[in-house]
Amino acid sequence: MSSPQRQQPMEGSCDSGFYKRISGCLGSLALLFPNRLKVVEHEFPDRPAFRQWLVDDGFRNHFDVADGKKHVNSPVVWFSKSAKGGEPDPADIERYLGGHDAVLEWCRDFVNPKVEGRGPVTMVNDGHKADHDYEYDLVVIGGGSGGMAAAKEAASLGAKVALCDFVKPSPKGTTWGLGGTCVNVGCIPKKLYHIGAGIRETMSVDSNFYGISGAESTPDDFGQLPAPETHSHWGVAKDNIQNYIRSLNFKYRVRLRDKSVKYLNKLATFKDEHTIQVVDKKGASSEITSSRFLVAVGGRPAPLDCEGGELAISSDDVFFLEKDPGKTLCVGASYISLECAGFLAGMGRDVTVAVRSILLRGFDRECSERIGAYMKDHGVQFKMQVTPSKIEKVENDQLKVTFSDGSSDFYDTVLGAVGRHADTDKLGLANVGVEVNPKNKKIPANLEQTSVPNIYCVGDVMEGCPELTPVAIQAGVTLAQRLFGGSKEAMDYVNICTTVFTPIEYSCVGLSEDDAIEKYGPDGIEVYHREFVPLEWSLSQNRHDANAFTKVVVEKSDEERVLGIHYVGPNAGEVMQGYGVSMKNGLTFKQLTNTVGIHPTSSEEIVSLSITKSSGEDAAAGGC
Question: What 8-state DSSP symbol labels residue 120?
Answer without folding.
Answer: B
